[in-house]
Design goal:
168 residues
């Protein structure tokens, strides 16, 4: 894949990551913003590189997955940067409520070990502004979710753009 093919997923993945850091919009990040970013990447590739129609399955999947990967990387970087600056995040704020909810299930030693790890992550975030375990967890989560929804967005974009551009 040449470098010109990487720019549309990179730009749209970056835009999706920026939008997913905005409070309120953040909740729609995985299921709405990332698929739309994959559609945008396909559209930009068609406009910039004058690609042939119809857009094939391989290209749509590749652009969707790349958009999801770039969105996950940038989203994690933004989250870590904001956490480092503020020494707080949604995880820190939600841990007390999460602990109350999980304690109702009476999981015993498993709960105690899990909560100890979570409290250590909160301590690291509040003290240093960074937790390696939190960063790995959030990156893994973002990568998995964003690539799945990017994949779906690529397929939706392929279908939409092929129909729209063939009708012209």
């Amino acid at each position: 894949m040449n470098k010109q093919k990487l720019f549309p997923p990179l730009v749209s993945g970056f835009a999706a990551a920026v939008l997913t850091t905005v409070p309120g919009v953040k909740n729609m990040g995985c299921c709405l913003i990332v698929p739309l970013a994959a559609v945008l990447a396909l559209f930009l590739d068609h406009k910039i590189n004058k690609t042939q129609l119809p857009i094939n399955f391989k290209t749509a999947v590749l652009f969707g997955i790349l958009t999801g990967i770039f969105a996950a990387v940038f989203s994690t970087l933004f989250d870590v940067l904001i956490t480092f600056i503020t020494k707080s995040n949604d995880f820190v704020e939600a841990l007390p409520q999460t602990e109350m909810l999980i304690s109702q299930y009476k999981l015993g030693a498993l709960l105690d070990q899990t909560m100890a790890i979570m409290h250590q992550m909160v301590h690291d975030i509040k003290t240093y502004g960074f937790s390696f375990l939190y960063t790995v967890g959030i990156f893994t989560s973002n990568l998995l979710i964003n690539t799945i929804f990017g994949f779906l967005g690529g397929l939706i974009g392929m279908s939409f753009l092929n129909k729209r551009l063939q009708n012209k």
